[in-house]
Amino acid sequence: MLTPKTHRIALLFNANKIFDREVITGIAGFLASTRTSWDLFLEEDFRLRLSGIEKWQGDGIIADFDDPAVAAALAPSRIPLVAVGGSYENVDDYPAGVPYVATDNFKLIKLAYEHLIDAGLRNFALFSLPEAQENRWAQEREKAFGTLMRGDRLHPEIFRGQSTRAPSWDEAIGQQVAWLHSLPKPVGVIAVTDARARQLMQACALAGIVVPEQVAIVGIDNDPLARMLTRIPMSSVMQGAQEMGRTAAHLLDQMLHGMRLGDTRILVPPAGINVLASSRHEAAKHPHVMRARHFIRQYACQGIRTGQVADYVGISRSSLESYFRQELGCSVHDAILRFRLDAATAILASGDCNLSEVARKCGFTSSQYMHSVFKRELGCSPRAYQERMAGQARACPVPDPQEG
User: Fold this and answer.
1) Does residue 200 sit in the same domain as residue 217?
2) Which structural domain, as residue segments, surrounds residue 156?
3) Reported pTM
């Protein structure tokens, strides 16, 4: 029995970016599920360096073509190559003669936009990035937003702001605050990345703008690190980046076995949207309820009680309870508990966790109390919930490129 040839494959990605890490994870998933034998070349620190790449003697390359420098460096290469990147409205903007696996920028924006519409919002805006060659994917998301808005006979409000650097940080945040104040309220804002969404949430906090009653925010990437750095849990569209990685690996494997794929293009839709507090817009009629819910979102997981919420709002506990019953049909304690439950389900859905640690992080007094809340509100234990979510997240089959 012949031993399958081991191919030497270069992965040219910047793994400090969540999108690139997820693509690499998808490639690894393909290798594990198919027993394909590849020796992978990545820089030791997982950063992308192009110097000398033209001298690399391997069998194949999968590369992030969102960076124009990568496309230029690989243009002379005769090694089998699969490109990964964002989709383009103009088909002429795709690299010629290179199989290309793209995140569907239009569908990413459309999913976020429709979510904000479903939340009852009628004003919308997009927080993008400065125009630059390396930000072409962001400009494609601007085009998608503009198309959707004009289709609904609305004006596309787009703000690019500055690139964030330490010397200009205060100025950049100041511009964001001024832009936020200029928007009609309530407004739903789509940020082209979770990093931009996180900045906007900081700007809202500085400006005293309540999220999500006044400004509802949705990011893109579902980046766990960005979510951990926000006080209010952040909604985000999940790119199908792992599916892109599996698809790209599948294409390259076919090329290594003699298939010619030429201008094959496969657009991968988003995997869904992780809806958390930052975009759960519910128009609050009473300002005391709005202010109380803003405080709860920020501090529920720190073990706050009803009296502390009332103190923050500046009214008696009984008055606040009355407002909550009238407007929301629940007590202040119920609202705090619901937020803790949402935080716990988000952590459990992300992977294997210690239940005692989850209870502590989410403000429950004990794992036993968290267990009883799960059983009462969701009809299952925290562990059963985690196992159910893990089952739903199992990998889907890799699509056949001939069907793309």
Assistant:
1) yes
2) 105-239+274-279
3) 0.78
